[in-house]
Specification:
Blueprint: H1 2-18, E1 32-41, H2 48-55, E2 62-64, H3 69-80, E3 84-95, E4 98-107, E5 110-117, H4 124-131, H5 141-157, E6 164-171, E7 177-185, E8 191-198, H6 205-209, H7 231-247, E9 254-263, E10 268-276, E11 282-289, H8 296-303, H9 313-321, H10 329-334, E12 342-350, E13 354-362, E14 368-375, H11 382-386, H12 399-412, E15 421-426, E16 433-439, E17 447-455, E18 459-471, E19 483-492, E20 497-506, E21 514-527, E22 530-544, E23 552-565, E24 575-589, E25 599-611, E26 620-637, E27 640-655, E28 700-713, E29 719-731, E30 743-754, E31 758-770, E32 776-785
């Protein structure tokens, strides 16, 4: 018995000292034992049974207490799980039944959060993604090392090769959980000092570097440009360089090598790019195969390429399959029902400098339109939406008609333009038809205003009014009928200003594109030797044309009013006069949006004739106005046109037929300010109200405007900022008109659509020329309402 006890103690001491995590069991006399049991100590999250199972040390198995490979394998397996920072297998005891083993582990902590500090150039989410650990993940010290290298590699890819990263554990209040604290030392931001090209014989360094969008050098005067070097953007710019060569006919051009040289002392980057241009390639022949609907000459006209032209890869592809103006060859098919038509070019390279192009045309079936469905119009009635659509069930599929329909719905301003999209789906049980679903998202276009304030012209002022742009006469509380109902009442102190108006417009009479409306009004103002009241009613009727295209329309109007002039001027006499006016307005509006147009134009020519000269009424004048606005998108942001150029021209001429003509003062032209002075004034930013030309008014007007607009938001509150330059003037008559004598101004501003107030904005403009009184205008801050 004593012998057994001594043997047990000696064995236990030996195993306890030498059976380590490296599996080094050393005994002097190797002997086989049976595993009687296995226990685990130190685990918190890991399941005991799972650890034993993974170790492979199963009760009943035999084991040597010296250098048994099973122990070594068990330790290696548990280490390989990466759950533990320490693994040891010890001999617990030896009995008659066999040996009892104990697996001792220390678990790696789990992540509670990843904290990023001192990062500016790369956001937290991108760095956390590079770390590769989320809450609940097991993390080891080696994982921290890998995270440091991964984040540094991310910075190097972005053009910051000298960034250094340190990751550490940070204790938390929760046992076995830790925070990963990643501290970033971004080091120096490098600027592009020079870009040099080698191997190019046809382009200068400036032309080639001009192909880059982001990687640019910067001169002292280019305050708007950034020269910061970012590796990812540089890689993208290299692709643009290859496209530049392809646009110019060098389709074989490629970058042989490039070097990015960092100058740490000067915080500068020097770039050297070696290119191989290859020969300039020309088009020899273009043929079409498979086309039966359109002959070769029609398709060739759309391509705008002929024999001997430089082979511009990008322009050829756009004119073949899709350009912004929808004048490509594929549009011929897509606008005529061939929804699945495809054009696949085969380019045959002919040494040394030519290509033959074979375009395989797969016309496929001609599709018709099945159902046309509107979804999302919770207020606007279906018929109001449908009457604006150019797609009809049974018509052949027409992509241009869908684009035109979307534009027409945007002009209504009833729906969110950013979510207005068509969805084209196959028609059930018909392989030659498609259904079109127009998904709309309603937004309010009604405006309401109630205000009180002080104006230098009229003292204490107030106003209340509303405009329902999507009104319904039959369901006034619900709306959605597409009619317009407006009411406005404004007043000034001591009855110096009063304006009342009430009007209703039906844009689609009997569901035809015929507009009918009326307006009753009563206006009085007393300002700058002008004391007049007008009371009357106006009726108008208009019609959309189909020729020359359906953007054209004409409107005719008649107005009956009583003018009471309490002052006398060179152009108008004192007393009460009856005015009967007829007018016509010819217009073409192809804008894709009324508040922030990015494409299209607006043209109008209007004539108004007060018939006093032929004995109808007592007021006599003939007024003509010409307006033209043009919009062109310059740049996209996140898929939407945001940067837009606008050019506008406006002319006006007013004359009487009789020698003792009586012209209403309100019809005369005045210019300056924001046009909110209470009577008709043509706005000209940078100048005060009605300070350009004679104070009593003029008969000739001209104005020119250029704006560069950038949309900050398109929905829910459309906002854009702009810079402007404009010039204009008014003259007493044609003989004194000088089209080169213009008052010039420039400045900047912001415009927004604020519901339910409507369009409002602010501008700050500088008037370069003197006023009528000889004073310099200078800087002027203006508030704007309406367009």
């Amino acid at each position: 018995m004593l012998k057994k006890i001594v043997l047990f103690l000696l064995t236990a001491l030996t195993l306890s000292a030498e059976l380590s995590a490296q599996g080094g069991m050393q005994m002097q006399q190797p002997q086989q034992y049976t595993i009687a049991g296995v226990t685990v100590r130190g685990n918190q999250f890991a399941d005991t049974e799972s650890i034993i199972a993974l170790s492979g040390l199963v009760p009943g198995e035999s084991i040597r207490l010296v250098n048994d490979p099973k122990v070594q394998k068990a330790i290696q397996t548990l280490w390989g799980r990466k759950q533990f920072s320490f693994v040891d297998i010890k001999l617990d005891r030896i009995t008659d039944m066999g040996v009892f083993l104990e697996i001792v582990v220390k678990e790696n902590p789990r992540v509670s959060a990843v904290i990023i500090e001192d990062n500016d150039d790369i956001n937290d989410n991108d760095i956390i993604e590079a770390v590769g650990k989320m809450r609940g993940d097991i993390v080891s010290k080696y994982d921290l090392y890998l995270a440091e290298r991964s984040v540094e590699a991310l910075y190097e890819k972005e053009g910051s090769p000298f960034t250094r990263v340190k990751a550490n554990f940070e204790d938390t209040d929760t046992n076995a959980y830790t925070r990963i604290l990643v501290k970033v030392n971004e080091g120096t931001n490098f600027k592009v000092r020079s870009i040099r090209f080698e191997g190019s014989e046809n382009f200068s360094d400036g032309e080639l570097s001009g192909a880059f969008e982001e990687t640019k050098t910067k001169s002292w005067w280019q305050v708007w440009r950034s020269a910061k070097f970012e590796m990812k953007k540089y890689e993208d710019d290299k692709k643009l360089l290859e496209k530049f060569f392809q646009k110019n006919g060098f389709i074989d051009a490629f970058i042989v090598k490039d070097s990015v040289i960092y100058d740490a002392d000067k915080k500068a980057v020097h770039i050297i790019i070696t290119v191989d241009e290859g020969p300039k390639v020309y088009v020899r022949n273009i043929r079409f195969e498979g086309n039966t609907v359109y002959p070769d000459e029609v398709l060739l006209r759309r391509l705008e390429f002929k024999t001997g032209d430089v082979y511009n890869v990008e322009r050829f592809q756009q004119n073949l399959t899709g350009n912004e103006n929808q004048t490509d060859a594929s549009s011929l098919y897509l606008d005529n029902g061939y929804l699945q038509a495809r054009m696949m070019p085969e380019i045959l390279r002919l040494p040394p400098d030519s290509v033959d192009i074979l375009v395989n045309v797969y016309e496929n079936e001609r599709f018709k339109i099945g159902k046309v469905t509107i979804v999302g119009n919770t207020k606007t009635k279906d018929k109001v939406v449908r009457r604006e659509l150019f797609t009809r069930p049974g018509d052949f599929f027409d992509r241009s008609a869908i684009i035109r329909s979307i534009r027409a719905l945007q002009v209504l301003q009833y729906f969110n333009p950013e979510t207005l999209r068509p969805d084209i789906k196959p028609t059930e049980n018909d392989n030659t038809a498609v259904d079109i679903v127009y998904k709309v998202e309603e937004r309010s276009t009604d405006t309401f205003n109630a205000s009180i304030g002080f104006a230098g012209s009229f003292g204490l002022t107030g106003a209340v009014g509303f405009t329902f742009n999507n009104f319904s006469i039959t369901e006034p509380l619900k709306g959605g009928g597409g009619q317009i109902f407006n009411f406005n009442w404004e007043f000034g102190q001591a009855n110096r200003y009063r304006n009342f108006s009430l009007g209703v417009t039906e844009p689609w009479l009997f569901d035809e594109p015929t507009t009918v409306g009326f307006n009753v009004f009563d206006t009085y103002f007393n300002f700058q030797d002008l004391d007049q009241s007008r009371t009357g009613i106006g009726i108008n009727i208009g019609r959309r044309f189909r020729w020359p295209d359906d953007y054209w329309r004409a409107d005719w109007s008649t107005r009956l009013q009583i003018n009471d002039n309490k002052t006398e001027s060179f152009f108008f006499r004192q007393g009460k006069f009856t005015e009967v006016t007829i007018g016509q307005r010819l217009s073409r509006i192809s804008l894709n949006h009324m508040f922030f147009p990015t494409a299209g134009s607006r043209f109008s020519y209007s004539t108004n004739f007060a018939m006093g000269a032929i004995g109808i009424g007592q007021v006599d004048y003939f007024k003509n106005e010409l307006n033209f606005d043009m919009y062109n998108a310059l740049a996209k942001v996140e898929g939407n046109d945001r940067l837009v150029a606008m050019l506008s021209t406006r002319f006006g001429y007013l004359a009487g037929f009789k020698s003792d003509t009586t012209i209403s003062p309100i019809e005369l032209y005045r210019m300056g300010g924001n046009g909110l002075s209470g009577f008709s004034v043509t706005p000209l930013r940078g100048y005060p109200d009605n300070q350009i030309g004679p104070g009593a008014g003029s008969k000739v007007m001209a104005k020119y405007t250029a704006e560069l607009r950038f949309a900050i938001s398109l929905d829910p509150m459309p906002i854009y900022v702009y810079g402007f330059a404009e010039a204009g003037n008014v003259w007493g008559d044609l003989r004194s008109t000088n089209p080169f004598d213009l008052k010039r101004s420039a400045g900047f501003g912001i415009q927004m659509m604020v519901m339910p107030i409507g369009i409002m904005g602010f501008s700050y403009g500088y008037g370069f020329d003197t006023l009528s009184n000889g004073e310099q205008s200078g800087w002027r801050f203006l508030f704007h309402l309406g367009q």
